[in-house]
Amino acid sequence: MEPLALLTLFAAAFGAATVLPFQSEIVFAAMHLRGDAPVWALVVVASIGNTLGAVVNFWLGRWLESARDRRWFPASAAQLDRAQRWYGRWGVWSLLLSWAPLGDAITVVAGVMRTPLRVFLPLVAVAKTGRYIVLAAVTQGIFG
Q: Burial level of 123, CB count in 10 A (0-12/13-18/19+)?
């Protein structure tokens, strides 16, 4: 098992879960196909990195809420209110969509809405881990 490869995957997965423009799926699939590490190790490392990246978004949301009246704030009051209403309607279960393309926004809004971390973390971890398990199965099935 190559530690540098797993560190690279962790960094890509972490970055992909934040507002940074990273793509961890390509790195994961390439490492899986090359056999850089056992698939279980790839899933664990990518899942942990991606979940921790979502936690950064969560804390960013907590901090952003206190700055909502600032001129530089990245969303209008109407946009923030709409996001909060949406999250209020669908609740914490929407965190199971945190693996999806707009999932990063959901994790930020969860922070804004003061979702307890003890609720946030397991839901996001299940969603992120499920994504990498499916990606491993698809990569193996299509290319393996």
A: buried
Which of 37-41, 74-78, 95-99 is predicted least confidently? 74-78
| Residue 122: its H or E element | helix 117-143
What confidence tens digit (pLDDT) does each residue in 84-119 have? Answer: 888 889 899 999 999 998 898 899 999 989 999 999
How far is Cα 84 from Cα 76, in angstroms, rounded to an integer? 12
Between CA 91 and CA 6 the distance in angstroms is: 34
140: tokens are 């193996």
Compute the chain's Rg from CA coordinates: 16
Q: Which of 38, 35, 13 is nearest to 24 (CA)?
A: 13
